[in-house]
Amino acid sequence: MNFLISDALAEAPAAAAGAPPQGSPFMTLIMLGVLFAAFYFILIRPQAKRAKEHKAMIAALAKGDEIVTAGGVLGKVTELGEGYVTVDIAKGVEIKVQRQAVQTVLPKGTIKSA
């Protein structure tokens, strides 16, 4: 066991005498570029695509559409405003929600089957 400790001590001055070899700075830049490209294709691009689809869905809302809000409320659109949508959630019960709170547009007849 003692011979392992002496070997470790013997190598310490030898490593200090010469600097460890360093990689090429171009290789570092290439790896950084690959890392950025991976983040772009895995995280940034899909999120931007989803945001664009959501924006198009909100712009295409019309009276009579059946929707689900971000809070999980099901209802039918009765009025459309600039920033708000009036949603009929039961007979005689209407609420106003922000357009951005509309999460999904459902197929016609979904509320009756629910």
TrEMBL record:
Zinc in keyword set: no
Localization in the cell: Cell membrane
Lipid bilayer topology: Single-pass membrane protein
UniProt keyword list: Cell membrane, Membrane, Protein transport, Translocation, Transmembrane, Transmembrane helix, Transport
GO biological process: protein transport
Membrane-traversing stretches: 26-44
Keyword Transmembrane helix assigned: yes
PANTHER family: SEC TRANSLOCON ACCESSORY COMPLEX SUBUNIT YAJC
NCBIfam families named in the record: yajC
Family in the record: Belongs to the YajC family.
Protein name: Sec translocon accessory complex subunit YajC
The organism of origin for this protein: Sulfuricaulis limicola
